[in-house]
UniProtKB/TrEMBL annotation:
This is Inositolphosphotransferase Aur1/Ipt1 domain-containing protein. GO terms for cellular component: membrane. Residues 98-287 form the Inositolphosphotransferase Aur1/Ipt1 domain. The chain crosses the membrane at residues 7-25, 37-54, 66-87, 122-145, 157-178, 225-244, 249-266, 272-293. It holds the Pfam family PAP2_3. The lineage of its organism: Bacteria, Pseudomonadati, Pseudomonadota, Alphaproteobacteria, Hyphomicrobiales. It comes from the Bacteria. Keywords: Membrane, Transmembrane, Transmembrane helix.
Length: 308
């Protein structure tokens, strides 16, 4: 029953975000491609149907859990991604100057750091490949943890992913950042033969949303608009936390995501403090999500037996 309540709460959050999206789009000049949501509806409905099957007709808790949490993640992503575009359009003052100052205080030089990878094409290619594994890792985490029977850990992970995304979206709307790449704008020759995942052409959507030149939202063409705090950093840190003390999985996940965190300034065009902020968001999200999944202690177990 407790899992049902928590799933209901997640669905309620998704509905709330959708209501904000629909209202915001209806009251502004934004346009949304309705057809782009059909794939998400179909995939979420399929996962929900399978989950219902494993709950009622062929009870298998692990499969039900995996399908339910996957459906939740799919629906949440479809709701939260447009919201990130909408808050970007608020066009509040950028805080990149302050973030560069924080990086400098930490002794971090973005141009020198990224330049090191650009001069080594093989190293740059490795960074690109591992950086692109993050979303696949999130999906794999739900499957692996769910099938291992770690019900509360799986649910806590999905809840933390959702909470972390909402925090990053809200913070990026209030204190927007273009990122180190878009602020520094190095010449094409700076990159050599390396082509990062996020380049200046990719970042142009961010500026178009702020200026009003871009007002079309399609789930088929979504880009990451959040620079500070880095949501990529949040997801990598959450993956590490999710697999902490989970058999032989922890060390490979730790190493891979530590490398992703190191590659984030290169492939995502982030300030170092963006990554640090993303890790902080992950820690807070994991903690607060965990409050809902702590086992309840019955009153009888709380009583202290007093010796005669």
């Amino acid at each position: 029953m407790r899992s049902d309540v928590q799933t209901f709460c997640k669905v309620a959050i998704i509905i709330g975000i959708l209501a904000i999206d629909v209202t915001w789009i209806a009251l502004t000049d934004f346009r949304f491609e309705g057809q782009s949501v059909l794939k998400v509806i179909a995939a979420s409905a399929f996962c929900g149907l399978v989950a219902y099957t494993y709950r009622t007709w062929r009870p298998m808790r692990a499969f039900e859990l995996v399908c339910t949490e996957t459906a939740v993640l799919l629906a949440f992503t479809a709701a939260a991604a447009p919201l990130s575009y909408l808050v970007t359009s608020l066009a509040r003052p950028l805080i990149d100057a302050q973030l560069i100052g924080f990086d400098a205080a930490l002794g971090f030089d973005w141009s020198a750091y990224v330049g090191y990878f650009s001069e080594r094409p093989l190293l740059g290619m490795i960074c690109s490949v591992i950086y692109l594994t993050t979303l696949a890792q999130v999906a794999l985490a739900v499957i692996v943890l769910g099938l291992m029977g770690k019900t509360e850990r799986t649910q806590q992970f999905v809840s933390a992913v959702m909470l972390g995304a909402l925090v990053c979206i809200v913070v990026s709307g209030i204190w927007p950042s273009a990122g180190a790449l878009a602020t520094t704008r190095p010449p094409d020759s700076f990159w050599g033969s390396h082509h990062p995942v996020v380049d200046l052409a990719y970042k142009q959507t961010f500026f178009d949303l702020r200026s009003g030149a871009e007002r079309f939202i399609s789930l088929d063409k979504m880009k990451g608009m959040i620079a500070f705090p880095s949501y990529h950093g949040t997801l990598s840190a959450l993956l590490i936390l999710a697999f902490f003390r989970v058999g032989h999985w922890f060390w490979p996940v730790l190493v891979l995501n530590a490398l992703i965190l190191m590659a984030t300034p290169v492939e995502g065009g982030h300030h170092l403090v963006d990554v640090i902020g993303g890790i902080a968001v992950a820690g807070g999200s994991w903690y607060f999500a965990g409050l809902f999944y702590r086992p309840r202690i019955s009153r009888s177990r709380q009583l202290i037996e007093i010796p005669a």
